[in-house]
Design goal:
Layout: H1 2-27, E1 37-43, E2 46-49, E3 52-55, E4 58-65, H2 69-96, H3 106-122, H4 127-186, H5 194-210, E5 213-217, E6 223-227, E7 231-235, E8 238-239, E9 241-246, E10 254-260, E11 263-267, H6 274-309, E12 330-331, E13 333-334, E14 343-348, E15 359-364, E16 367-372, E17 378-381, E18 386-388, E19 391-397, E20 405-408
Antiparallel strand pairs: 1-4, 2-3, 5-6, 6-7, 7-8, 9-10, 10-11, 12-14, 13-20, 14-19, 15-16, 15-20, 16-17, 18-19
Helix pairs in contact: 2-5, 2-6, 3-4, 4-5, 4-6
Amino acid sequence: MTAALNIGARALTANLSALQVVGHNIANVNTAGYSRQSVSMVSAGYQTLGGNYYGKGAEIGTVTRTHSAYLTREAQLAASVAAADTERLQRLQQLETLFPTGASGLGAAVNDMLNAWSDVASSPTHLPARVVALARGEELAARMRDTAGQIDALAYSGHQQAQSTVEGINRLAQDIARVNQRIIENQGQTGQPNDLLDQRDALMAQLSRFVQTTTVAADDGSLSVFVAGSQPLVLGQTANALALQRDPVDATQSRIAFVQGGVAQALPETSLGGQLGGLMGFLQQDLPAAQNQLGRMALALNSSLNTQHRLGVDLSGNAGGHFFVPTAPAAAMPATSNTGTAQIQTTVNDPGALVASDYRITATATGFDIVRTADGSSRSVAALPATLDGLNFELGAGSASVGDSFLVRPFAAAARNLQMALSAPHQLAVASPVLVTPGSGNGGGVAIESLYAVQPSANLTDPVTLSF
């Protein structure tokens, strides 16, 4: 009788525990990240009496999660890729709004300025036409400066968001390390702390949206988390960190570093994934490319218009000066590891040959290697100065040691600093310094149809006689 009562009591206790699990499932039906739990019943064993074996009933074996490690990992990976693409798309859409089409676009401003120049050419002495030409030039410069300022604002907000994302990643890493500790402390010989495992999976899902991860499970129930391929963000109960740092060469750019034991190691943005990877891809690739395109346009207009304007004569008979304030030579930024004293700069040689790209210059035993960072193409020269892509690369002062490297951003500030050099309409130099006067004794029918200056010279106004 006693044995039968024990079997019944044990069965009631086991089924009561099963009902508690069912109630737990029902209560958490809408809980994000919760995995349904199920009870496994096992035999309670047996006892011997008089050489016979008598069963002792049933008891709870284990309470397990309805969980697939493979599907969980695939979901986290898909979420990471989607987060990277979504973040980059949103940022690119913001960048696209800075370049509207139609009357408010930069193209329309350039056309308006050129049309105003045509009006002045048709009526060189008409002061209102000259005033309009100056106004159109100032409007174009203002639009260039405004667009460059908005690109700078996008870069600033991107850096702020990157900092916030890195801080979120570090908090999640610490939370995962703490949950690992609790799992280790509560891990049983047969059962598992299912709710703690769900909590850790939820943290991993959040982390995967920020940065792409890989994981390795340990025998003690802890989970090690790696980022950028092999960097241990979480090792069991220990959390390391990521950090946002300014680039040591180009202070306008940021980079992500992995910090362990006080030592920081820079990570390539292509290895990050997740929201952080998409954001850093935008900041390090898309935004500089747009900035270089805008800067190339500004630098080409500045150089071309100034060259043409210096070939003319203003209303007072003076040779033309600059239409825009000339863009200062772009100084190369030396790497912090350089041991030489070289100072390199670039100036425009051919506005029509400019390529929207930064350049990296490395001193070698035989000269210099100039690499176009946009596509990786390179050119080796024996010495500087050298010409490439419409730019003059010049050694301003000092000397370079073998291995020294420099980053040149010739277009970064061109649009941001575009300013008018003229302020008065009579200063517009639209008259030709070269006049053609037929000889009074000419007997033939030869006439000069077109004659114009192609480069400024102090001898342009000297008389020249052509005799046949």
